[in-house]
Amino acid sequence: MNLIKKNITKVKQSATLVINEKSKQLIADGKKVYSFGFGQSPFPVPEKIVSVLKDNAHKKEYLPMQGLEELREAVSKYLFSQTGVNYSKENILITPGSKEAMLLMHVAFNGDILLPTSSWVSYEPQANIAKNKTHWIKTKRENNWFPTADELEKKIKMKIKNKNIILILNSPNNPSGSVCKNLKQLAKIAKKNKILVLSDEIYTDLTFNGSYDSISKYYPEGTLISGGLSKWCGAGGWRLGFIAVPDKLKKFLKSLKTLASESYSTVNTPLQYAAVEAYSGDYENYKNKTRKILEGVGNYAYNNLKSNKILLTPPEGAFYLMPEFLGTKFKNSNHLCEKILEDTGVALLPGSDFGFEPKKMIARLSYTDFDGENFLNSLEDNGNLTDGMVEKFAPNVVEGIKKLSNWAKKI
Fold first, then answer.
1. What CATH code is carried by the domain that includes residue 106?
2. Per-residue DSSP letters for 241-303?
3. What is the pTM (predicted TM-score) of this model?
4. Which of 51, 109, 245, 377 is the most buried (most CB within 10 A)?
5. Looking at residue 83, what is its pLDDT?
6. Range of 68's domain?
7. CA–CA separation, 134 vs 117, rounded Å?
8. How far apart are the C-alpha atoms of 245 and 222, rounded to whole Å?
């Protein structure tokens, strides 16, 4: 007797979580591992936010299913300050991480999902869970790994018969670390063809130039925004996210709320009070310093890894690089990453997990294997970040990049 639905049997465990567990096991076995596979912020949660969490730890009552009103108001004001678009508190749902918000969206949505190559590992599996068909748009390095407006329109008109479409955009991008430069043009095509956009803005606060660009600025009536505390705030394990929807999608939001009520009921109560502080407090200095460190470490990794054997796009945000290995003889990118881990101890994720053809020798590298608290405390507010500081405070990154670079020269 087959107890499992056919579409569920085709879904693998999340690649990022699998590599994290594998790396931990190798370390527990006494092996040296450079943990470049799991994308987790290395920085501590700001002390004031932790303090508010502690102060509210005694609160045990269920909060409203949609989320604490003060938190939804804080998120609304935060989004308005960053995008100029008004997502009212009534149109915001608080979720246990933005990943859950996106899963609810997939389950509720009746249509097709459009994904650029490259895209985060969970977009396609979540669509498969919800039985929504996915379509991939191939992208190019010269376009920063984002589709052009013409490529988007061609895909919509030639390949997709369903009139209900959601395009998922993530900038800065996981896995490439690149920023989308043509949001306005993509918004024009989305609006023209009456498709919706999910703007995954989990990394937008970590754009290295300090700007917060969102496609919602150019297409507010058709853009949903997801975000949370895991990346900019260093609170991945806290699991606090949100999804904001435009006014015309209130009926869709109602379905998301129904799904939420029948799954997680409500998000952790003390955490929601702490999140009010996170979204309403002034943490620009914290963000500026973490961005400066990530940019410095990312550029160090980029400058010491790029070669005639490894192609790279310079990092522009988040904490990722996407190396492409040239002249290899491996079966696929998964085999490539297995061999790299075996030979060097460097843990990477294969590009096939992010939508690339398996034979394209691309991998994702997360340069966060360092003590973020120590680095943060050692950087003066207006101080310059040098390669010497990277070598001192991010030794695992430095050593791992050197091993990877030397390995690539021999293949």
1. 3.40.640.10
2. EEEE--GGGHHHHHHHHHHHHTTT-S--HHHHHHHHHHHHS--HHHHHHHHHHHHHHHHHHHH
3. 0.94
4. 245
5. 97
6. 49-280
7. 12
8. 8
